[in-house]
Specification:
single chain, alpha+beta, six-stranded antiparallel beta sheet, globular, binds zinc ion
């Protein structure tokens, strides 16, 4: 059972690391997010398990128009491969969502405890990504927030076609320094993938 729950605002976890305040513009088209009814935020995080420290590898805000465009730029072969991999992990995905919704655990802490796909504990990950969707200024708890472990990232790398990787690299070149790589968008809630 999946419900749709709106948190009150956006948890500070999703704030822009540099400013400490919520994102105001789409990283890709620079459109103001205040006028967007829906957008996603994603963070890739490097974690030192021994030191228990974390650092942001990159983060971005992505308006739904840009997300839709990027989703359409992924080749059919890759989409198929990605969907196949998601389907293999569907049981874990659904079990986690069912648990969180039925117990009404609408806190980021609960949602980020384990990988959405593999169930791996996030505290044991060297790297993980978190993505959430904001609607009307509030974080939505529904299919997302999604947290992806290094374990699943590795599996995804294995199934992505060479063609897609090259496509992603080409797109990455178009984006200015310091912004996220397109390749990693597939870890987030890009429309048409999940
Ligand atoms: Zn945009």
């Amino acid at each position: 059972m999946i419900r749709k729950f709106f948190s009150d605002g956006i948890p500070s976890f999703f704030n822009d690391y540099d400013t400490g305040a919520p994102f105001t513009r789409c990283t890709f088209c620079d459109g103001g997010l205040a006028t967007k009814s829906k957008y996603a935020i994603e963070k890739m995080i490097n974690q030192n398990i021994v030191l228990q420290s974390r650092e942001i590898v990159y983060e971005y805000a992505l308006c739904w128009d840009c997300a839709t465009t990027m989703g359409s730029e992924i080749s059919d072969d890759s989409k198929e491969a990605i969907q196949g991999l998601y389907n293999e992990h569907r049981e874990t995905v659904m079990r986690k969502l069912d648990y969180l919704h039925s117990t009404e655990k609408y806190s980021l802490e609960s949602w980020l405890e384990r990988c959405s796909l593999t169930g791996k504990e996030i505290r044991l990950c060297g790297e993980f990504s978190v993505s959430g969707i904001v609607e009307g200024g509030n974080l939505v708890y529904e299919q997302s927030p999604i947290v992806v472990s290094d374990e699943f990232m590795y599996k995804l790398q294995q199934v992505l076609s060479k063609e897609t990787k090259e496509g992603f690299d080409g797109l990455r070149d178009k984006i200015m320094d310091g912004s996220p790589s397109i390749e990693d968008l597939v870890f987030g809630p890009v429309p048409g993938l999940m």
